[in-house]
Amino acid sequence: xxxxxxxxxxxxxxxxxxxxxxxxxxxxxxxxxxxxxxxxxxxxxxxxxxxxxxxxxxxxxxxxxxxxxxxxxxxxxxxxxxxxxxxxxxxxxxxxxxxxxxxxxxxxxxxxxxxxxxxxxxxxxxxxxxxxxxxxxxxxxxxxxxxxxxxxxxxxxxxxxxxxxxxxxxxxxxxxxxxxxxxxxxxxxxxxxxxxxxxxxxxxxxxxxxxxxxxxxxxxxxxxxxxxxxxxxxxxxxxxxxxxxxxxxxxxxxxxxxxxxxxxxxxxxxxxxxxxxxxxxxxxxxxxxxxxxxxxxxxxxxxxxxxxxxxx
Length: 312
Description:
Radius of gyration: 23 Å
CATH superfamily of the largest domain: Nitrogenase molybdenum iron protein domain
Strand order of the largest sheet: 5-4-3-6-7
Oligomer: single chain
């Protein structure tokens, strides 16, 4: 009987804890929603809201992915083209593409806030939105670690700090796990190809370089001056990557990727270390980028095993 009584007390305490947690989460979110908000955006501009935004326009696919990650998608009234993840985001009205913004549509929707991927749309378009009287937050995450802060910022702006902090903590833990797993591994020379005519890659200013480094890789074109430099086959041969990888928007291997078989002297070609990856999980500054990182890390691990098998 004593044991049954102790069990009953334990379950009662557990129920009380759950009820208290739910109440506190509701109270914190309610306070966050009603309190004035003052933040500095990624271009150094001060943003002021009387209360959390309830009608938000997101111009950037990574922003859409991130708003879903913090359970605040119900605040979104419009997005830009290519905002296709998660699948339910495809039904949200479009008001912009990579090169153009439909300012009339945006004004008609009367948003409390417009969040814009800064380098994707440029400072001129951001300024025009502000000149129209809209509250605009310019977002420009550049590194893997910046995604954590992006989640927290979106939570503050929309009054969803509790769920945002939870998502940010989960992201930070996964990032740390990957860092600890791979940072002592043997470096692998990597060529990340984004296009074939002209042949292009990415330098160390792009987040893809961060992913390569996370996995213990070395971007062979990291020190190029342009963020997406054009390179030649001769330059690739000279740098002799151990792994060649390309990103695609679907799961199909592009036919031009097999052209590398014409240069069997390249270590990656000789050892058949050529892989295709989902580009969206590599280039979007959103939590899903860690899925791309895990996949890339597994390809680098295969390249290391290939060396061990051949006794190199």
